[in-house]
Design a protein that fits this description.
NAD(P)-bd_dom_sf, Sacchrp_dh-like_C, ATP binding, single chain, 21 strands, ATP-binding, Dihydrodipicolinate Reductase, domain 2, 2 domains, nine-stranded mixed beta sheet
């Protein structure tokens, strides 16, 4: 396996630090628009293992499908791993296919909705552009594995596992994400600094969240997607491992678009513990038009307001030393268990920032996202996972993934997941 990873931000950097411990690949090329950043990530990976020579760096414009394809051919990539913002999904996805390579990402192609449409109207959904090209990937005998980060990703593996091993009937697959993280300045005061890309946070939190329900509207629809206003239906969810109660709200997310394709359930939702401060900031950005991606002219320079907001905040890759606490990603499944009795189970994965910083020099939010595509690449390399076309994690066997993730090193990745009855 020869991996071309596009993106040397926080997640890409963490993925390289995780991957260097494994032997399933022969080459890992780190590519970024900024060649110096790509070389820093490649050098950091090489420095973690004596005699390591598999990591190299390259420059690429992720917005240019032809450039991605040309680099993939040049480095003889068998797999293109997309580790950049979702706005670059389609060029990288297209470039990988053109180069006859397999493809993985952690976020799907963006949704498009008419600004004057009623909230019930969905429009172009997350991933629609990619699934529309599934036939091309299948005809080429190549796999595009979508949404294989943590959320989406591990949460989707949990969905398949719950359906296979725990439940006879699923009422709801409810992804629930929460944390007790704080970031402090040099004086110990709490400061605002998102744990991952602010560009992506704005995109998914201010878009109308999608919900999937079977027989919505009194049974007149066999199944259906619909949207709600942002931050709808707040609920307090009690997260494990000392995180405790966190208020969660609906957010647009890939799980809702992926899970119903392969897992039988009556309802699929995603709720995120944003917190009052983040919600207030997002609402203010929207009111001021600072969430817009349309360029405006400032003193003769064209600039996107959202890009300015993201540039003004700390790079998520750099805030680890000032971060404290844990983050939890998981799936709350309700329904009827294999024994025929009602069941309510939360499958989850918790990462303590102190642990990820100590072991990998990566803050916990990006590290938790990065470990899952590396596990997936290993399963693809050894043939445990395989396929062609455009697939989500739910389409593949869950137990090998969960076993490899949790198994102690060096056999596995030493990152156990948990299960709690609610």
């Amino acid at each position: 396996m020869r991996v071309l990873m596009v993106g040397a931000g926080g997640v890409g950097d963490a993925a390289a630090r995780i991957a260097v411990e494994r032997d399933f690949f022969e080459a890992w090329v780190v590519a970024d628009y900024d060649p110096e950043r790509a070389e820093r990530t490649a050098a950091a990976a090489r420095g973690r293992r004596t005699g390591e020579e598999r990591f190299s760096a390259a420059q690429v414009d992720a917005s240019d499908a032809d450039a991605v394809a040309a680099l993939a051919r040049e480095v003889r990539a068998t797999h293109v791993f997309n580790a950049v913002d979702p706005r670059f999904v389609m060029p990288i996805f297209t470039g990988a296919l053109a180069a006859d390579a397999h493809y993985l990402d952690m976020a799907m192609s963006l949704s498009v909705r008419h600004p004057d449409a009623p909230y019930e109207q969905v429009g172009v959904k997350l991933g629609d552009e990619q699934f529309a090209r599934a036939g091309e990937w299948e005809a080429a005998g190549r796999l595009a594995l979508l949404g294989i980060g943590v959320e989406p990703g591990l949460s989707d593996v949990f969905a398949r596992y719950a359906a296979d091993e725990l439940f006879d009937h699923i009422d709801e697959l409810g992804t629930r994400d929460g944390a007790n993280l704080v970031i402090r300045d040099d004086d110990g005061n709490e400061v605002f600094a998102p744990g991952f890309s602010m560009w992506t946070i704005i995109e998914e939190c201010l878009n109308p969240p999608v919900v999937w329900e079977r027989e919505r509207g009194g049974g007149d629809l066999e199944k259906g997607f619909f949207t709600l206003p942002p931050f709808s239906e707040p609920e307090v969810f009690d997260f494990p491992d000392g995180i405790g109660p966190v208020e969660c709200v609906h957010v647009e997310h890939e799980e809702v678009l992926l899970m119903p394709r392969w897992v039988e359930a009556d309802r699929v939702t995603f709720k995120y513990g944003l917190g009052e401060e983040m919600i207030t900031i997002l609402k203010t950005l929207h009111t001021l038009g600072l969430d817009s991606t349309e360029p405006v002219t400032v003193k003769g320079v064209q600039v996107s307001p959202r890009d300015v907001v993201a540039a003004c905040l700390p790079d998520p890759a750099t805030i680890g030393p000032r971060m404290e606490g844990k983050t939890c990603a998981g799936l709350w499944v309700t329904g009827t268990g294999k024994d025929g009795a009602p069941r309510s189970t939360y499958l989850y994965h918790v990462v303590d920032n102190a642990d990820s910083m100590r072991d990998y020099g990566a803050q916990c939010v990006v590290w938790q996202t990065a470990i899952n595509p590396v596990v997936a690449l290993e399963l693809l390399a050894n043939g445990t996972w395989s396929g062609s076309g455009v697939l989500g994690p739910e389409a593949l066997p869950p137990k090998p993934f969960l076993d490899l993730l949790a198994a102690p090193k060096p056999e596995g990745y030493g990152s156990p997941w948990g299960m709690e009855e609610k």
